[in-house]
Amino acid sequence: QVALVESGGGLVQTGGSLRLSCATSGSIFSINFMGWYRQAPGKQRELVATITNGGITNYADCVKGRFTISRDNAKNTVYLEMNSLKPEDTAVYSCNANGYYRIDKFNVARFDSWGQGTQVTVSS
After folding, report:
1. C-beta atoms surrounding 43 within 10 Å
2. How far, in whole angstroms, is CA 113 from its chain's centroid?
3. How far apart are alpha carbons 21 and 8 in whole angstroms?
């Protein structure tokens, strides 16, 4: 199928910046939505930002104006630029992608894959 691997997480001070990347691998035919989600300890996973293959973006209200999602369709990679980070942004950030992958020369099947996640910690 399709695998996703995140990178770029780490420890940063309040007001700092980080850039997350999510690379895909597999026999990808097409990717529709790509997105970033996060889960803080003791909380449910929440949407951070999504982007369509046409570049239409959607952000959680709490990150609007601070985070920017982008994608490189040629590389099937999605990025999350995070600025003005706050302690409440501390969480495990996971990427998600859905679309179609090649089964064989003539057939495709739908996929909806998640990465393992990368830790982002913002110190006060």
Report:
1. 9
2. 11
3. 6
The DSSP code for 106 is: S
Query: Residue 32: which of 98, 94, 115, 96 has the closest Cα?
Result: 98
Q: What is the pLDDT of residues 10-48, one digit of tens each?
A: 999 999 999 999 999 999 999 999 999 999 999 999 999
Residue type, 94: S
Radius of gyration of the chain (CA): 15
Q: Judge contact between 25 and 2, C-beta under 8 A.
A: yes
Maximum Cα–Cα distance across the chain: 54
| End-to-end Cα, the chain, rounded Å | 40
pLDDT tens per residue, range 47-84: 999 999 999 999 999 999 999 999 999 999 999 999 99
